[in-house]
Amino acid sequence: MLFEDIYRDYWNKVFRICMGYVNDADWAKDVAQETFIIIWKQLPKFRNESAVGTWIFRIASNNCLRQIERQSRMPKTELPEQIEDKADPDREWQSKLLYKCIAELPETDRIIISLELEDVKQAEIAKITGLSESNVRVKIFRIKEKLTQKFKQYER
Amino acid sequence: MSDNIDFKQLWSSGKATVPDVSEIFAKADQLNRKIRNKIWRGNIILSLTIIFMIFIWWHYHPQLITTKIGLTLVILAIISFLISTNQMFPLLARTDEETDSQHFLEQMIRIKQKQEFLNKTMLTGYFIFLSIGLFLYMIEYAGRGSLIFQLSAYGITFAWIAFNWFYIRTKTIEKQQNAINDIINRLEAVNKQLLD
């Protein structure tokens, strides 16, 4: 498996997960890049014991959690400036709002919902987070409810 | 607004341009260099101090064994100081990034607790070694002066050591512990989210 292929296929996914976590494009880029540095270093040792996607998302999620160590930086709760979707300004605004709402959730909820929105199977999310599948299901349901509520509140 | 907001579609419309892959390699290189520089800095300070001690040893030909033990203790003190100021800590604590979030958080908490213990122990060791080292070192040279010289030399030294022990050591440990405890608390809070 070539690193360049993984990079091309997963950059956007990893970046979005980081973006959901920190809601700041420069910071998210940093975290995503650190994730790929680890992937690059560990790739020769990767033995297909788990799907490559699960492996990548584990590293990405842990790198997000590592941000807890950085005291000075808290996730922004402002609308991010940089996500580009010029075709439809209304949807662009909604997309930014979604990232803002996610960044306001508790840390692990941010990761779980980001993975869910990235279309990662719930069984895989369980493997990434270390939770049971049923637990993941319940959590996703609750997070979605919370997110919908927040989203509507801001939209009004 | 309908009740069913298509979050998935909104989510995936958040795209950023993919930076060139060479940026990753450049950043990896930059990080490596940073770590190497940090280790080098620590080693240079350490080597210079040891060279200085050996110079004293060689130039002043201490006669008493106490002086030699004193110098050795001061060197040990500096080594423990460097460890306690985190110069060498990254080498002692490696994390496994490929595990699941729950284990990762537990691992981070363990490492931070280890760091807290290490900082405290090393810093205390530093002050003990440095104080005893200085005391032993002074015996030979202070012994050559008058009584008043001896008294004032030891008096000033001990006042300085006491100030360091009771004020600077306590303050430093407190500061370090607060910082680490703060991180541990936050890690534990996040870990608890998973258990809810």
TrEMBL record, chain A:
Source taxon at top rank: Bacteria
Signal peptide: none
Example of a GO biological process term: DNA-templated transcription initiation
Protein keywords: DNA-binding, Sigma factor, Transcription, Transcription regulation
NCBIfam families in the record: sigma70-ECF
InterPro entries reported for this sequence: RNA_pol_sigma-70-like, RNA_pol_sigma-70_dom, RNA_pol_sigma70_r2, RNA_pol_sigma70_r4_t2, RNA_pol_sigma_r2, RNA_pol_sigma_r3/r4-like, WH-like_DNA-bd_sf
Sequence similarity: Belongs to the sigma-70 factor family. ECF subfamily.
Alphabetized Gene3D superfamilies for the sequence: 1.10.1740.10, Winged helix-like DNA-binding domain superfamily/Winged helix DNA-binding domain
Stretches assigned to the RNA polymerase sigma factor 70 region 4 type domain: 97-147
GO terms, molecular function: DNA binding; sigma factor activity
Protein name: RNA polymerase subunit sigma-24
Pfam families: Sigma70_r2, Sigma70_r4_2
Organism listed in the record: Mucilaginibacter xinganensis
Keyword Amino-acid biosynthesis: no
Keyword Transcription regulation: yes
Domain RNA polymerase sigma-70 region stretches: 6-73
From TrEMBL, chain B:
Keywords carried by this UniProt record: Membrane, Transmembrane, Transmembrane helix
Membrane spanning stretches: 39-58, 64-84, 117-139, 151-168
Domain of life: Bacteria
Protein name according to UniProt: Uncharacterized protein
Taxonomic source organism: Mucilaginibacter xinganensis
